[in-house]
Design brief:
This protein is an alpha/beta fold. The chain has helices at about 15-25, 90-105, 220-235, 285-305, 315-330, 335-345, 345-355, 360-370, 375-385, and strands spanning about 5-10, 35, 45-50, 65, 70, 75-80, 85-90, 110, 115-125, 125-130, 135-145, 160-170, 180-185, 190-200, 205-215, 240-250, 270. It has three domains: about 5-45 and about 90-145 and about 255-305, FAD/NAD(P)-binding domain, CATH 3.50.50.60; about 160-250, D-Amino Acid Oxidase, Chain A, domain 2; about 315-385. About 30% of the residues lie in helices and about 30% in strands. Helix 1 (about 15-25) runs parallel beside helix 2 and helix 7 crosses helix 8 (about 360-370). The structure holds flavin-adenine dinucleotide. Flavin-adenine dinucleotide (FAD) binds next to helix 1, strand 3, strand 16 and helix 4.
């Protein structure tokens, strides 16, 4: 006898668990849901940062926040204040623990760890049939959050790659009130590089070396640059590494559908980082995933069908595309372009733009801050679409 569910969520990382939390706390009829997760257990494998605007999800669980941010290049340093939307950091372990507890409290939700799909789901007579490591299962709807292969994403415009250490230094050397959003590596023709420094106390900070480039950079390629940066911030002082994190985020996603088993049916949706969760120009995905999870749970309740990520507005998408193309074609200009943005756009406008809450006047301010010359070719391509 096959186990039956209204919904199967494949992959219970950020997107899968976020949807699980929304379903678990839903009033009324909750869809009977199975979450399948391949990991055996959750670890504190990443930190999520976001602008803590009023209403930001999980804001109250953040372990630290900064109201002062800096960006810095070889030529200048720009500081800006963001008390109106503090930059917040959430440890993934805090989120995982909360999500697992919330899901466990609702008998209609079942999270199975160390579980995978053995064969791609097949649709027959209104049911998705799945052969899983927990046995055969059928479900009315599927939310698939499994990351797509790097090969299928090879036409993505830019890759954000990073490697970071959470360190504890012997001496009190950090300013816990100020985060360094981008401390630029010298401009060069291969990548836009920068350090991201998030001090949580005078002795403890997350330091990441990040690249935006036409190709992914793997941790072994970033390590020497990160080691140099850490030595520089610590001025040679003693420290220990408490935790390491790394990531590859597609910016300006392009999926080769011939290389993925893509199902085209309203009861099957793809979500998560490689299915449109990340804002193309920044790679930020956490708050967008929360917004999607709220809407997807609502749609499940009303229609029994899940939702994919919403498309960005035409204008936002085009602005992001143009920006990413310019960075890909002229990485040497990257530090200057970002410095211009932070120096010339009023911080409230910039934060609204970066967190997908921009009005058209914010878009205008961003456009005005960028030098016209490198954008002309791409603007022409845009206007001729
Ligand atoms: C280190 C790191 C730091 C980040 N920091 C930020 C940040 O500061 N701010 C921000 O907005 N975004 C950030 N992101 C981007 C984004 O928010 C995260 O990547 C987020 O975890 C994406 O959620 P997801 O559900 O798509 O992927 P994941 O969280 O990776 O979840 C996918 C899940 O699917 C499981 N899985 C994979 N294959 C199978 C299978 N065959 N069967 C069952 N399960 C499977 C995996 O084990 C995993 O749990 C960061 C990403 C990384 C990697």
């Amino acid at each position: 006898m096959q186990a039956e569910f209204d919904l199967i969520i494949i992959g219970a990382g950020c997107a899968g668990l976020s949807l699980g939390v929304q379903l678990a706390k839903m009033n009324g009829t909750v869809p009977k849901t199975l979450l399948l997760e391949s990991r055996k257990f959750y670890e504190n494998d990443r930190t999520w940062c976001f602008w803590g605007e009023p209403g930001a999800a999980y804001s109250e669980m953040a372990s630290h926040q900064w109201t002062q941010l800096t960006v810095q290049s070889a030529k200048e340093k720009v500081s800006f204040e963001c008390a109106f939307a503090p930059y917040q950091i959430l440890a993934s372990q805090t989120f995982y623990d909360y999500a697992v507890q919330s899901i466990a409290q609702n008998a209609l939700l079942d999270l199975r760890m160390d579980s995978v799909v053995l064969q791609e789901p097949q649709y027959q007579e209104g049911w998705w049939r799945l052969d899983t490591s927990c046995g055969p299962i059928r479900a009315r709807a599927v939310v698939d959050t499994r990351p797509k292969s790097m090969e299928s994403l090879k036409n993505t415009t830019l890759w954000q790659s990073f490697l970071g250490y959470e360190i504890e230094s012997k001496e009190a050397i950090f300013d816990p009130l100020t985060a360094r959003l981008m401390d630029f590596y010298p401009a060069n023709s291969e990548f836009v590089g920068f350090n991201y420094v998030l001090p949580q106390s005078e002795k403890r900070a997350l330091i990441e070396f990040t690249t935006f480039a036409h190709r992914p950079y793997f941790p072994n390629e970033l390590q020497s640059k990160l080691d140099q940066s850490v030595a520089q911030y610590l001025k040679g002082g003693d420290f220990k590494i408490i935790r390491t994190e790394s990531g590859l985020i597609p910016m300006g996603l392009a999926t080769d559908n011939s290389l993925v088993a893509k199902v085209d049916h309203p009861s099957y949706v793809y979500t998560g980082l490689t299915a449109g969760a990340a804002r193309p120009a920044t790679g930020y995905a956490f708050q967008r995933i929360q917004e999607w999870a709220r809407k997807c749970a609502g749609a499940m309740k009303e229609t029994g069908l899940p939702l994919a990520h919403a498309n960005d507005s035409y204008l936002l998408k085009k602005m992001d595309d143009i920006f990413l193309n310019v960075i890909r074609d002229h990485p040497d200009l990257g530090p200057e372009l970002f410095m211009n943005l932070f120096a010339k756009v009023e911080s409230k406008r910039l934060v609204r733009f970066l967190s997908d809450k921009g009005h058209w006047v914010d878009y205008l301010a961003v456009i005005k801050a960028l030098p016209a010359a490198p954008f002309l070719k791409d603007i022409f391509n845009f206007s001729s679409l």
